[in-house]
Design goal:
By secondary structure, this protein is an all-alpha fold. It has a domain of about 25 residues. Helix 1 runs antiparallel to helix 3.
């Protein structure tokens, strides 16, 4: 189960990184420079809106995976048994 969550988080992180890198901070980005299509990419007229929604989507997926993974692995904490702790080796007077 740990490996599944790790793989899903890594895939979502790579996708989020790609989407963020494709965007231009001034709004041009992929939307303004794809073959002179005037803000049209694969039939989508508002590519910047699609990229922004994708950014929020993948950020939300990563957050939900982090929350769900912490809920599934809640029982992995260990408690300390005081009877198994070593006793002090200081000699008594």
């Amino acid at each position: 189960m740990i490996i599944l969550f790790l793989i899903l988080v890594l895939l979502a992180s790579v996708a989020l990184g790609f989407i963020v890198l494709v965007q231009n901070p001034k709004g041009g980005g992929l939307a303004g420079s794809v073959g002179g299509l005037n803000n049209q990419f694969m039939g989508v007229k508002q590519t910047t809106d699609v990229l922004e929604k994708g950014t929020w989507l993948f950020a939300g997926i990563i957050a939900l995976l982090a929350i769900f993974s912490s809920l599934f692995f809640k029982g992995s904490t260990s408690s300390v048994d005081l009877n198994k702790l070593p006793t002090s080796t200081v000699p008594k007077k």
